[in-house]
Amino acid sequence: MNGNPLYVAIGDSLTVGIGSTFFQPNFVKYYHNILEYHFKRPISKLVFAKNGATTDAILESLRHPDVAQAVHDASFITLTGGGNDLLHAGKSWLRTGNSEMVTGAIQMCLQNMERIIETMVGLHKDVQEPMLIRVLNLYNPMFEIPESVKWLEYYNQSLISLERFPSVRVADVYHAFKGHEPFLLSLDHTHPNPIGYRVIAQTVAGLGFDPVDPT
What we know:
Elements: E1 6-11, H1 13-16, H2 27-39, E2 44-49, H3 55-61, H4 65-73, E3 76-79, H5 83-96, H6 100-124, E4 132-136, H7 146-159, E5 168-171, H8 173-177, H9 181-184, H10 194-205
Parallel strand pairs: 1-2, 1-3, 3-4, 4-5
Helix pairs in contact: 2-10, 3-6, 5-6, 6-7
Protein backbone atom coordinates (compact mmCIF):
# COMPACT_ATOMS: atom_id res chain seq x y z
CA MET A 1 0.00 0.00 0.00
CA ASN A 2 1.44 3.31 -1.09
CA GLY A 3 1.39 6.14 1.43
CA ASN A 4 -0.76 6.16 4.53
CA PRO A 5 -4.05 4.25 4.59
CA LEU A 6 -7.10 6.52 4.34
CA TYR A 7 -10.06 6.68 6.71
CA VAL A 8 -13.15 8.36 5.21
CA ALA A 9 -16.03 9.37 7.49
CA ILE A 10 -19.32 10.04 5.71
CA GLY A 11 -22.67 10.98 7.17
CA ASP A 12 -24.75 13.32 9.25
CA SER A 13 -24.45 15.15 12.57
CA LEU A 14 -22.96 12.11 14.32
CA THR A 15 -20.03 12.24 11.93
CA VAL A 16 -19.84 16.03 12.35
CA GLY A 17 -19.72 15.50 16.11
CA ILE A 18 -22.67 17.63 17.21
CA GLY A 19 -23.11 17.28 20.97
CA SER A 20 -19.43 16.90 21.75
CA THR A 21 -17.31 19.73 23.11
CA PHE A 22 -14.29 21.62 21.85
CA PHE A 23 -12.02 19.82 24.31
CA GLN A 24 -13.45 16.31 23.88
CA PRO A 25 -13.05 14.03 20.85
CA ASN A 26 -16.11 13.18 18.80
CA PHE A 27 -16.82 9.78 17.25
CA VAL A 28 -14.61 10.30 14.19
CA LYS A 29 -11.64 11.44 16.27
CA TYR A 30 -12.05 8.57 18.70
CA TYR A 31 -12.26 5.99 15.90
CA HIS A 32 -9.35 7.54 14.00
CA ASN A 33 -7.23 7.29 17.14
CA ILE A 34 -8.25 3.65 17.58
CA LEU A 35 -7.26 2.85 13.99
CA GLU A 36 -3.84 4.43 14.38
CA TYR A 37 -3.27 2.64 17.68
CA HIS A 38 -4.35 -0.71 16.26
CA PHE A 39 -2.26 -0.52 13.10
CA LYS A 40 0.60 1.39 14.76
CA ARG A 41 1.04 3.77 11.85
CA PRO A 42 -0.33 7.13 10.67
CA ILE A 43 -3.70 6.97 8.93
CA SER A 44 -5.00 9.85 6.84
CA LYS A 45 -8.53 11.11 7.45
CA LEU A 46 -11.20 12.84 5.35
CA VAL A 47 -14.64 13.81 6.63
CA PHE A 48 -17.68 14.45 4.43
CA ALA A 49 -20.63 15.17 6.69
CA LYS A 50 -23.31 17.76 7.31
CA ASN A 51 -25.52 18.40 10.30
CA GLY A 52 -29.10 17.50 9.36
CA ALA A 53 -28.14 15.38 6.34
CA THR A 54 -30.72 12.81 5.30
CA THR A 55 -29.92 9.55 3.54
CA ASP A 56 -31.00 11.22 0.27
CA ALA A 57 -28.38 13.93 0.81
CA ILE A 58 -25.69 11.42 1.75
CA LEU A 59 -26.40 9.37 -1.37
CA GLU A 60 -26.27 12.51 -3.50
CA SER A 61 -22.94 13.50 -1.94
CA LEU A 62 -21.31 10.40 -3.44
CA ARG A 63 -21.78 11.99 -6.86
CA HIS A 64 -19.32 14.76 -5.94
CA PRO A 65 -15.91 14.03 -7.48
CA ASP A 66 -13.96 14.66 -4.27
CA VAL A 67 -16.19 12.33 -2.25
CA ALA A 68 -16.16 9.65 -4.95
CA GLN A 69 -12.37 9.80 -5.16
CA ALA A 70 -12.05 9.53 -1.39
CA VAL A 71 -14.27 6.42 -1.33
CA HIS A 72 -12.21 4.94 -4.16
CA ASP A 73 -9.01 5.47 -2.18
CA ALA A 74 -10.31 4.52 1.26
CA SER A 75 -9.16 1.62 3.38
CA PHE A 76 -11.70 2.43 6.09
CA ILE A 77 -15.15 4.02 5.84
CA THR A 78 -17.67 4.80 8.55
CA LEU A 79 -21.22 5.73 7.61
CA THR A 80 -23.80 7.42 9.82
CA GLY A 81 -27.24 8.10 8.40
CA GLY A 82 -30.94 7.59 8.84
CA GLY A 83 -31.39 9.41 12.11
CA ASN A 84 -32.66 12.61 10.54
CA ASP A 85 -35.03 10.74 8.21
CA LEU A 86 -36.66 8.88 11.08
CA LEU A 87 -36.55 11.76 13.55
CA HIS A 88 -38.45 14.00 11.13
CA ALA A 89 -41.02 11.26 10.52
CA GLY A 90 -41.34 10.59 14.27
CA LYS A 91 -42.01 14.24 15.01
CA SER A 92 -44.68 14.29 12.31
CA TRP A 93 -46.26 11.21 13.87
CA LEU A 94 -46.35 12.94 17.25
CA ARG A 95 -48.25 15.84 15.68
CA THR A 96 -50.63 13.87 13.47
CA GLY A 97 -50.79 10.32 14.81
CA ASN A 98 -50.18 9.04 11.27
CA SER A 99 -47.79 6.10 11.61
CA GLU A 100 -47.66 5.58 7.84
CA MET A 101 -45.23 8.50 7.67
CA VAL A 102 -42.83 6.57 9.90
CA THR A 103 -43.15 3.23 8.13
CA GLY A 104 -42.69 4.96 4.79
CA ALA A 105 -39.61 6.78 6.05
CA ILE A 106 -38.13 3.52 7.33
CA GLN A 107 -38.51 1.82 3.96
CA MET A 108 -37.09 4.78 2.05
CA CYS A 109 -34.20 5.04 4.47
CA LEU A 110 -33.35 1.35 4.11
CA GLN A 111 -33.45 1.66 0.32
CA ASN A 112 -31.15 4.67 0.42
CA MET A 113 -28.68 3.00 2.77
CA GLU A 114 -28.47 0.04 0.41
CA ARG A 115 -27.89 2.34 -2.55
CA ILE A 116 -25.19 4.18 -0.61
CA ILE A 117 -23.34 0.93 0.10
CA GLU A 118 -23.75 -0.29 -3.47
CA THR A 119 -22.29 3.00 -4.70
CA MET A 120 -19.35 2.81 -2.30
CA VAL A 121 -18.56 -0.78 -3.27
CA GLY A 122 -18.80 0.15 -6.94
CA LEU A 123 -16.44 3.10 -6.54
CA HIS A 124 -13.83 0.83 -4.94
CA LYS A 125 -14.24 -2.21 -7.19
CA ASP A 126 -11.09 -1.65 -9.29
CA VAL A 127 -8.84 -1.34 -6.22
CA GLN A 128 -6.92 -4.44 -5.17
CA GLU A 129 -6.54 -3.43 -1.53
CA PRO A 130 -9.56 -4.38 0.60
CA MET A 131 -11.88 -1.79 2.09
CA LEU A 132 -13.64 -1.89 5.44
CA ILE A 133 -17.08 -0.25 5.72
CA ARG A 134 -18.72 0.17 9.10
CA VAL A 135 -22.37 1.26 9.15
CA LEU A 136 -23.75 2.57 12.43
CA ASN A 137 -27.29 1.59 13.29
CA LEU A 138 -29.51 4.01 15.21
CA TYR A 139 -29.85 4.57 18.94
CA ASN A 140 -33.20 5.89 20.16
CA PRO A 141 -33.36 9.53 21.31
CA MET A 142 -37.13 9.12 21.77
CA PHE A 143 -36.72 6.16 24.12
CA GLU A 144 -39.56 7.30 26.39
CA ILE A 145 -42.06 6.61 23.59
CA PRO A 146 -42.91 2.86 23.32
CA GLU A 147 -43.79 3.01 19.62
CA SER A 148 -40.33 4.34 18.79
CA VAL A 149 -38.74 1.19 20.20
CA LYS A 150 -40.71 -0.99 17.82
CA TRP A 151 -39.82 1.14 14.80
CA LEU A 152 -36.13 1.45 15.67
CA GLU A 153 -35.73 -2.25 16.32
CA TYR A 154 -37.36 -3.08 13.00
CA TYR A 155 -35.11 -0.62 11.16
CA ASN A 156 -31.95 -1.83 12.85
CA GLN A 157 -32.77 -5.49 12.28
CA SER A 158 -33.42 -4.78 8.60
CA LEU A 159 -30.14 -2.86 8.31
CA ILE A 160 -28.19 -6.04 9.04
CA SER A 161 -28.99 -7.16 5.48
CA LEU A 162 -26.20 -4.80 4.37
CA GLU A 163 -23.72 -7.31 5.77
CA ARG A 164 -24.24 -9.43 2.66
CA PHE A 165 -21.69 -7.09 1.09
CA PRO A 166 -18.32 -8.63 2.00
CA SER A 167 -16.78 -5.35 3.15
CA VAL A 168 -19.66 -4.27 5.40
CA ARG A 169 -20.46 -4.78 9.08
CA VAL A 170 -23.20 -3.02 11.05
CA ALA A 171 -22.25 -1.61 14.46
CA ASP A 172 -24.96 -2.16 17.07
CA VAL A 173 -25.02 1.29 18.61
CA TYR A 174 -28.69 0.79 19.50
CA HIS A 175 -28.01 -1.84 22.16
CA ALA A 176 -24.86 -0.07 23.35
CA PHE A 177 -27.08 2.92 24.21
CA LYS A 178 -30.23 1.06 25.27
CA GLY A 179 -31.05 1.75 28.91
CA HIS A 180 -28.23 4.29 29.20
CA GLU A 181 -29.60 7.07 27.00
CA PRO A 182 -29.88 9.72 29.75
CA PHE A 183 -26.17 9.32 30.48
CA LEU A 184 -25.00 9.19 26.85
CA LEU A 185 -27.02 11.97 25.23
CA SER A 186 -26.10 15.66 25.25
CA LEU A 187 -28.23 18.48 26.60
CA ASP A 188 -30.26 18.57 23.37
CA HIS A 189 -31.48 15.01 24.16
CA THR A 190 -30.78 14.04 20.56
CA HIS A 191 -27.03 13.87 19.94
CA PRO A 192 -24.45 11.94 21.97
CA ASN A 193 -22.33 13.66 24.57
CA PRO A 194 -18.55 12.98 24.61
CA ILE A 195 -19.07 9.77 26.60
CA GLY A 196 -21.70 8.68 24.08
CA TYR A 197 -19.31 9.29 21.20
CA ARG A 198 -16.66 7.21 22.93
CA VAL A 199 -19.18 4.37 23.36
CA ILE A 200 -20.01 4.60 19.65
CA ALA A 201 -16.35 4.46 18.62
CA GLN A 202 -15.71 1.48 20.91
CA THR A 203 -18.76 -0.30 19.50
CA VAL A 204 -17.54 0.19 15.95
CA ALA A 205 -13.98 -0.85 16.84
CA GLY A 206 -15.38 -3.94 18.56
CA LEU A 207 -16.30 -5.30 15.13
CA GLY A 208 -12.60 -5.75 14.39
CA PHE A 209 -10.55 -4.71 11.40
CA ASP A 210 -10.69 -7.65 8.99
CA PRO A 211 -10.11 -7.84 6.07
CA VAL A 212 -8.01 -4.69 6.09
CA ASP A 213 -4.36 -5.10 7.05
CA PRO A 214 -2.36 -1.98 6.13
CA THR A 215 1.31 -2.92 5.96
